[in-house]
Amino acid sequence: MTHLLKKEKDYRYIEVGEGTPIIVLHGLMGGLSNFDAVTTFFSTNGYKVIIPELPIYTMSLIKTNVKNFASYLKAFIEFKGLEEVILLGNSLGGHIGLYHTKLYPKKVKALIITGSSGLYESAMGGGYTKRSDYEVIKKKAQDVFYDPKVATKEIVDEVYETVNDRNKLIKTLAIAKSAIRHNMAKDLPKMHTPTCIIWGKNDNVTPPEVAEEFHELLPDSDLFWIDKCGHAAMMEHPEEFNTILNSWLEKRQF
Predict the structure, then answer these.
(1) CB atoms < 10 A from the CB of 196, how many?
(2) Is 107 among the domain residues?
(3) pLDDT over 90, % of the chain
């Protein structure tokens, strides 16, 4: 982590730069540091980048679902006194961003999703029957990326610790079920927020056809592909990701 984590009230978050606020939403197993390149680039190019630590493992089990995470995001935006924001979400973070935008469209001026859940959830929360086997978990973590070397020992260790923590595993499975319940196929055609879809051509978690379906269902979306790239484009190809997003934001005048 190269950026300072702030702690205020019930919130822990990174905040860097000045300008139009971009709120970044991490995924189920994704740390805030996954967005270091995004944070550094956009915070020095006219944006205020804010990354809240989502209460994925700290909410009560009964509240651990996509809708409550979206409500948490609304409360955080109000706490920060922000009127209109750009939301950027990866994986579960994309789903939370989509659901928040559905509930509070006037609060969101633009949405960016990459490897987002919301339409296809079969890869979430499964495959942990051999969770005590480090090599099995290492392979699972590597499969998230096109280049397995991106899954550093630090990343693998974090995933291993998470799936072997009974409380965290129960909540991971609860989130997976919630993601299925909160499928957004019927909601997307009514959502007119400008949306940038950036997707890895080699995403094994949310395959390319998921991006195509998002693009087809969202009325005002643009779809961009990154080659030789898996589920976390902002980590695996940070420069290309930032270039695509920056060009889109400039074109849309955000």
Answers:
(1) 23
(2) yes
(3) 78
In a domain, 60, yes or no: yes
Q: What is the DSSP track for the chain?
A: --SPPEEETTEEEEEE-SSEEEEEE--SS--GGGGHHHHHHHHTTTEEEEEE---TTTS-GGG-SHHHHHHHHHHHHHHTT-SSEEEEEETHHHHHHHHHHHH-GGGEEEEEEES--SS--TTSS---TTTT-HHHHHHHHHTTSSSGGGS-HHHHHHHHHHHTSHHHHHHHHHHHHHHHHT--TTTGGG--S-EEEEEETT-SSS-HHHHHHHHHHSTTEEEEEESS--S-HHHHSHHHHHHHHHHHHHHTT-
Residue 59 in any domain: the answer is: yes
100-115: pLDDT as tens digits: 999 999 999 999 999 9
Number of structural domains found in the chain: 1
The pTM of this model reads: 0.94
Range of the domain at 50: 6-120+184-251
Measure CA 23 to chain center: 10
Segment 42-66, tens digit of pLDDT: 999 999 999 999 999 999 999 999 9
Structure tokens at 138: 């290492």
| Cα separation, 219 vs 197, whole angstroms | 12
**HEC readout, 119-153:** CCCCCCCCCCCCCCCHHHHHHHHHCCCCCHHHCCH
